[in-house]
Structure formats: structure tokens, C-alpha cells
Amino acid sequence: MKFTYEAYRNLIALLRECGYTICDYHNYMQSDKSVIIRHDIDLQIEKAVRMAEIEHDINVSSTYFVLVSSNFFNVFSKRNQAYLREICDMGHAVGLHFDEVKYDGQTNLVQAMEEEAALLEHCLGREVRSLSMHRPSKATLEADYKIADGRIVNSYGTEFFHDHKYITDSRRNWREDVTQIIKSGTYERLHVLTHPFWYDEEEQSASKRLKKFCTGRVEQCYDDLSDNIRDLEEFLRKDDL
Ligand SMILES: [Zn+2]
Fold it and tell me: Which ranges of the chain have pLDDT less than 70?
């Protein structure tokens, strides 16, 4: 499968043709044949907004997990907070993407998850009802954490990680043939994870996409500086970057 929006739309169409109902973490039991669609936001919120728009146009509601401890963005900035609220306003859910690496071995991880979820709820002005792990360790995958007394669903819990067929495009690679899995009719419960970062109008190699991301960040950095330093061009012109 290509990493284009067209290919993604085709994937959704195939799921529907094959009888899958697009559900979320809370209502999938109401359908005999369901797919939960999840996206992780690790690097760039803008790409998630674009994916959310594309899904909105084809009546898909999914869950976007945002990494609140990211080095790449601040969820509380005016721009990013507006983006995340925009994703919610399109009818999608925003959940917490949690990076355990931030915490040492002494930390109560469930408590840390609940604290980060509370921060994200404040940021969104909405309840957070789902959580996924960023690059989970084996121990975390096996932990089957119960978060906020079950109010927050753990997408790596047994229910979603073992009782569903889980497919992911991690590191820009579908390790299994996703279209074949959908067509096969073998699974009644699918759990599909994509990373909107890799998708675009045209197919791009990983290196091209990453280079574009780095270059774009330099430009964004300049624009953000110009909001903070009066007459920035007296010190540094954008052309000189
Ligand atoms: Zn992640």
C-alpha cells in the first residue's frame, strides 16, 4: 500500500466493502464485524489535522493519540491547541500517547498516565477516554494497565491488542499485507494504527519526507522567532537560513 491519501481512502473503502463497521474503543461490541482506526501523533500535529479532514470528508471517525511529552511540539501552544480542538470538532476522539521512557523505575506509571491525561483534558477542554503507548516496552505491552478505574481505555490492553487483529504502519512499513488481511475475512475485529506523518498527496520516500519535515521546521522556527523578536530581519534574514 502506498503512503498517499488516495491509498488511505481506498483502504477505508475496502474495509467498508468487506463489511467492517468503523467503530471506536467504546462501541465496537455493538457491531459483529468492526475496525478501530487509530493514529499516533509523534512528530507533527499538522499532518494529523490533514488526515482528520480527509476522514471527515468520507464520514470516518477515528482516534488520534497525541504525545504530550514530545520534543517536537507543545500541545499547549495556541496553534497546537487549536489544531487538536479542530480534530475533536471534526468528530474524532483525541487520546493520550504516553512515553514511559520519560519516567524512572520508581514512578507509578498508572498515576503518571492519569496525570498526563488530566493535562490533556485541560488542553482539549474535553474528556480523554483512551490512551496508547509510544514505543512500548515488552513489560508495558504485557501489563494490561487499568487507568482511571477503567474510565480511560488502554489501547494496548488485552482486549485491543490480543483479542483484535492489530495492524500497524510503524516506521513507514506495513509489516503484513493490510489489504490481504482485510479481504481474507479471517478477522471479525481489526485494530489499525497509522502514523499520519508518512502520508501525503504524492508518495514520498521516507528520506524525502523526513528532509521536508526538517526543512519545514527551520522555516517554522524563523516564523515563530519573528513573533517574538521585533525586526528580526535586522539580525537574521529568512533567506540566510
Ligand atoms: Zn508513538
Answer: none
